[in-house]
Amino acid sequence: MGPTTAVDVGQNPRPVDDAAALLRGLTVGLKRPKSQMPPVRCRIQRAEEIGNFSTGWTSFATPMAMNFFKSLVQKFAGKPVDWDELEEALVRSDLGVPMTLRIVAALQDRATSTTITANDVAEVARDEIARVLPIAPPPIRPLPAGPKVILVVGVNGTGKTTSTAKLAHYFKGRRHTVMLAAADTFRAAAIEQLGVWAERIGVEMIRGQYNADPAALCYDAYQAADRQDIEFLICDTAGRLHTKSNLMGELEKVKRSIAKHDAKAPHETLLVVDATTGSNALSQAREFHQSVGLTGLIVTKLDGSGKGGIVIAIQNELGIPTRFVGTGEKVGDLEPFDGREFIAKML
Ligand SMILES: Nc1nc2c(ncn2[C@@H]2O[C@H](COP(=O)(O)OP(=O)(O)OP(=O)(O)O)[C@@H](O)[C@H]2O)c(=O)[nH]1
Ligand SMILES: [Mg+2]
């Protein structure tokens, strides 16, 4: 691979805390200008008044999405809350401006004659989010013939390699055959990292030379998987900044080379986003989707972040469903996404 195709392994993009910037333009979409909104103040109840909405998903070290509402409650407990504060809290939870506007507008409809309680906020938010999130996105099943190819993409350090290994473990645990392709050829350590996982999980990994062309490697990996009647070929790729067009072009080339074997391959292109990067994940999803056409997300690091709003923002604004969530560093810390459980946990 020549220098023109070198993969950028610069620092992870810093999470852009642009909530404040977003808020400046927030009132634009409200049904009524704030000056005409009812003088009713939003009284958020204490946590103990709200009850426990948590169900299932016990594997989270921190009950991640509960934090969304808990922090809202803790912030405003026992004092009146105004619309500005409520909007800000919603935007800061990474739900995105359109979703925030939707929730606030629905609350406005209730606010004409009564005091809004925390229960109203929870109920309205739950209803509006439920309208957006699919309950269960389509499961990933093997094809009748030929390997199903899953291309794992994303910016640096989001958890691609770990998620590739977790997926292999997940499918193997369901008695499927799996092969890995170490298509992050830019760093020798990346090939080794996936190699260690492959050995631990007990799946074959196709590797190339350090600096080999990832498109050629994926092409070869498909042939190997097809020859061995493997059901799932999972390709780990190098981290790349979504803003660098040459790096996105390299990914398009990987897709084209796999499609030479099967026009529908890769059958899944999953973007790995780190939940802690907040709204930056939305722009990553937008750029990757435009370039390579995503079929879903793997949202990682939900265990420690206390944030999950990005799942909703990306579904709402880009229509890309979350397929799996990463809930820790261990190989078993991956779960298929379930919208109903997610909402139950969030509110
Ligand atoms: N807590 C937590 N850590 C995770 C999760 N997924 C990945 N990590 C950690 O995140 C770090 C980066 O993971 P990698 O899988 O190497 O990330 P990557 O996207 O392949 O990184 P590059 O190849 O350098 O772009 C590692 O320390 C992982 O253990 C998760 O769901 N929860
Ligand atoms: Mg990696």
Give a short overview:
The chain is of the alpha/beta class and 347 residues long.
Give a written overview of the molecule.
This protein is of the alpha/beta class and 347 residues long. 44% of the residues lie in helices and 14% in strands. The chain contains 14 helices and eleven strands. The strands form two sheets. It has an eight-stranded mixed beta sheet with strand order 6-5-7-4-8-9-10-11, with helices on both faces. Strands 2-1-3 form a three-stranded mixed beta sheet. Strand 8 (268-274), helix 11 and strand 9 (296-300) form a beta-alpha-beta unit. Helix 4 packs antiparallel against helix 5, helix 5 crosses helix 6 (118-132) and helix 9 (214-227) runs parallel beside helix 10. The longest helix has 15 residues, at 118-132. It is elongated, with a radius of gyration of 22 Å. The termini are far apart. Residues 1-66 have low confidence and may be disordered. Bound molecules: guanosine-5'-triphosphate and magnesium ion.
